[in-house]
Amino acid sequence: MNIENCTCVFKLLPGIQRFSSENFLKIARCGINTEYNPKRFHSIIMRIRHKHNRTTAALIFQSSKVVLTGVPNIRLARKMATIVLKRIEFSIREAKIQKFSELGIISLKVTNIVSSYRSMNRVTIELIYQEFRRRHKYDKLFEKITKVSYDPTIFPALRFKMNDDKFKREASCLIYISGRVILTGINSTKQVEYLFDNIILPLLVKFPRL
């Protein structure tokens, strides 16, 4: 599967430290590629542009928590966090705010990975749905699938959730008739590989649309 993007979180200040309202507003005003409208959303939005018109957005909260969305892959998470940190440091200097001695990248972690796959064959997703409803208690292929929904009048894809004792997070998957697959709710590439190899790929192989 191809990783499309990741969501990551980290803090700029340790413990319960936070920016004062005055300093937070100054940082927003002196920011690089930032916008801040507290009436709409209580965070500074900073945009980092990549090649091929891709953008990572950093949501910076007064608590010093930062949420990075649209990170192209896990390897770039720390690089994106470093860019945010350097821009915040620049804003602090420009705003003539007293320097924060403990400003840094604290507790950086990946909270969600969105990955995708394109099967060579179309898929009989309606048959997967029917088989799950009839045999999920007896068929090993379905034992790690916890919930399945399919209503083409509402949404064109089969939606299901997966859980495994090896990983403590429940993942969500969409399978389209075209063979396109989207997997979310995961925070490690190992879980992506495991779920694809042991659940998703066997479903695609067993239920091709002939």
TrEMBL record:
The keyword Transcription applies. Keywords: DNA-binding, Transcription. Pfam families: TBP (PF00352). It comes from the Eukaryota. One of its GO terms (molecular function) is DNA binding. GO terms for biological process: DNA-templated transcription initiation. Belongs to the TBP family. This is Uncharacterized protein. It comes from Meloidogyne incognita.
